[in-house]
């Protein structure tokens, strides 16, 4: 890897690390803060819903912009917006009483930032490294994200526990996101011809995914797995009411999936999956669902941490395989729009899954909600093996040919 390629990759991943850490630590604070104010599981679900709506509304147009404008600048502007959102929440949280409408508004703006940054960021990465190094770059990018997801919640939990206030967490998150924006602006990218111009071009990404059955299979599998099996929104409830712990334990619980994912990403960066990719994909999602069930049944902090670590490790296998498959099968001129569809399916499923978790927990209680979600994930795997035989039988990811 040449010095210029290495420089750009390090700068890009540094910006991604900082803004991810900022979001992760602030989410610990906002989750505990809202639950301590309201005691409402549904209020936690709304934290996901208000982020889902702008992601759903803007992601496809954001993909078009990523194929027309400078992707680096789009990502940097979104980092600035993230910094602004957390700064506003830091100021608001200094008051004794907090209007939840302000919290929800700032999280909605955070959803806007994520809607535009994700397609641009995913499409930017392949242009920073040669094709032969892309598989490793995905592994490094995933590792960077997971390291931030480990450190962010841990720092957020410790800082909240020490200060007994979310403001310090919000202000630190704002500063990190601001630095991320400046670092991203230093990335140098090569110019790429832009052809996307109309709404029809926006929908071209959807048409591409629909016709590429392997791409459709991996994206939709992850969508339903995260939608059903995600328990992140309920972690404040489990930490407080079931495990009888505090914000420090909440930070550890939020970090645990990232610990498993980071270790797995490091292994995959140096020892990529060479064959039977489809089998690895379905097996990893099955383990994800089963580990979620174990977490739902646990009443011990150590067992809960172990289960969430396995959740993160298994999820990382599917994440790396999905990213590699999607980027390998997508021509560069369409990467922004296809990444937008990927974001719409996968990224939005996190927030919609949080809302689903909040609603089902309000109906049935947190434990049944998590158990049903984990078992539902296993059922999805069984159905998808029948619906997408080409994905089930997929061997080497390098065999996927990128259309020009």
CATH homologous superfamily? MFS general substrate transporter like domains
- What letter string, H or E per element, gives the SSE order? HHHHHHHHHHHHHHH
- Radius of gyration (CA) equals 20 Å
Number of helices: 15
Task: Work out the number of β strands.
Answer: 0
N-end to C-end Cα span: 25 Å
Main β-sheet: number of strands, strand sense, barrel status?
Answer: none
Strand content is under 5%
Amount of helix? over 70%
Question: How is this structure best described in words?
Answer:
This protein is an all-alpha fold and 404 residues long. It has a single domain (3-185, 201-399), classed as Up-down Bundle (Growth Hormone, Chain: A). It contains 15 helices and no strands. The chain has helices spanning 3-38, 41-66, 71-92, 100-124, 134-163, 167-185, 199-211, 213-229, 235-242, 247-270, 277-297, 301-329, 335-364, 366-387, 389-392. The mean pLDDT is 81.
């Amino acid at each position: 890897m040449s010095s210029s390629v290495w420089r750009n990759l390090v700068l890009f991943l540094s910006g991604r690390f900082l803004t991810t850490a900022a979001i992760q630590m602030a989410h610990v604070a906002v989750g505990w803060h809202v639950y301590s104010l309201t005691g409402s599981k549904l209020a936690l679900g709304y934290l996901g819903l208000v982020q889902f709506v702008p992601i759903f509304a803007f992601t496809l147009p954001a993909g078009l912009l990523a194929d027309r404008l400078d992707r680096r600048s789009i990502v940097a502007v979104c980092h600035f917006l993230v910094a602004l959102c957390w700064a506003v929440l830091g100021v608001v949280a200094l008051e004794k009483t907090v209007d939840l409408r302000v919290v929800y508004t700032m999280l909605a703006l955070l959803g806007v930032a994520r809607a535009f940054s994700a397609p641009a960021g995913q499409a930017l990465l392949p242009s920073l490294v040669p094709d032969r190094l892309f598989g490793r770059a995905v592994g490094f990018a995933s590792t960077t994200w997971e390291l931030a997801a480990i450190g962010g919640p841990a720092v957020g939990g410790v800082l909240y526990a020490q200060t007994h206030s979310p403001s310090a967490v919000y202000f630190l998150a704002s500063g990190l996101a601001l630095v991320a924006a400046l670092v991203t602006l230093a990335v140098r990218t090569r110019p790429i011809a832009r052809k996307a111009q109309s709404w029809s071009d926006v929908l071209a990404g959807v048409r591409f995914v629909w016709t590429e059955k392997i791409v459709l299979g991996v994206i939709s599998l992850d969508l339903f797995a995260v939608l059903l099996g995600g328990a992140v929104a309920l972690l404040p409830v489990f930490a407080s009411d079931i495990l009888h712990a505090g914000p420090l334990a909440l930070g550890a619980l939020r970090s645990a999936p990232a610990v498993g994912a980071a270790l797995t990403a490091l292994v995959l960066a140096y020892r990529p999956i060479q064959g039977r990719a489809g089998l690895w994909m379905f097996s990893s999602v099955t383990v994800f669902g089963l580990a979620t069930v174990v977490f739902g049944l646990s009443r011990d902090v150590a067992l809960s941490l172990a289960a969430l670590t396995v959740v993160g490790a298994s999820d990382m296998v599917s994440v790396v395989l999905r990213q590699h498959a999607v980027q390998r099968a997508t021509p560069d001129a369409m990467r922004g729009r296809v990444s937008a569809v990927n974001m719409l399916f996968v990224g939005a499923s996190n927030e919609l899954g949080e809302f689903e978790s909040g609603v089902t927990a309000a109906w049935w209680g947190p434990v049944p909600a998590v158990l049903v979600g984990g078992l539902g994930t296993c059922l999805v795997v069984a159905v998808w093996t029948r619906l997408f035989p080409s994905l089930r039988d997929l061997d080497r990811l390098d065999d996927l040919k990128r259309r020009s």
